[in-house]
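re: ur msg from earlier - yeah i can do the zinc ion complex, just paste it... oh wait u already did. ok heres what im feeding in:
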Amino acid sequence: MIKIAPSILAADFTCLGKELDSISTADQVHFDVMDGVFVPNISFGLPVLASVRAYTDMVLNAHLMITEPVRYVKRFCEAGADVVIVHTEADTEAHTHEALRIIHECGKKAGISVKPGTPAEAALPFIHEVDEILCMTVEPGFGGQKFHFDMLPKITALREMIAAEGRDIDLSVDGGIQVRTAALAAKAGANLFVNGTGVFETVDRETYIRIFKRSVEEASA
Ligand code: DX5
Ligand code: ZN
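and the outut:
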């Protein structure tokens, strides 16, 4: 099934409640956490996530672009994330296993993410433990960038790995997603689409979300 997760990095924070209302027909809320170390930008963190959790029942997916996320995953779970994603590049393999274990121990879903320069194989050591693999299709750190078309073979490789694992693991793409790039990513094997700029620069988000999902479903059928 094709799912869409608007990234509130592109929302207007002076009226975040209204912004969340406007995307209530989406499948998830994508919550980009940046620490100014793992990526050259700082976004928002635990207090904002807790406010969003108190406001909405939507699935909250926290994409942690922070260094050594094992230090913070428990607090993101406690603040109300339903899914917590850590980057394979953000710490040692042992600490990443530990982070995934903690997230599951908290009763939440766990995922890993790979930057554009990281090969698909980097996901292999974690494939038995994850509920989602997020393939970055831009360099993490900023919204509004252009989709990296050279990520399409990597998306296919990740989908093959997931098929071999035989479990229901979401394969998400994040960065530069619009209907055209999402359709290509869907053909390559992605099923969950993070979309910041596209959703929030549109006035009628309900219509945008409906047409986005239908168009991507048709294009990838
Ligand atoms: C980038 C973030 C993305 C970003 C996507 O580091 O992980 O989630 O907000 O934004 P768009 O859709 O504008 O590329
Ligand atoms: Zn993201």
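cool cool. The first helix runs from residue 16 to 22. ping me if u need the other ligands too
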